[in-house]
Amino acid sequence: MSLQLTDEVKELIEKTIRYFQGGNTNLDLKKLKGEWEGFYRIRSGRIRIIAEFNFESSVAFIEEIDWRGNVYK
After folding, report:
1. Domain span including residue 49
2. What is the pLDDT of residues 13-30, one digit of tens each?
């Protein structure tokens, strides 16, 4: 993963945390269903991040980072 992409992923996770804390952010976030229930999809361009958030311990678990067509496989 390139450094630029790593910075973008870090920024998206930070935005997501701010969103859950009640902040107003421009973010494409979706709660997933089915076998991914309990996870959220963060979308930015062709990149998808699948993450689970534990609000009690303030932890974000990144399950998958991949291109659009590969992430759900």
Report:
1. 3-67
2. 888 888 888 888 889 999
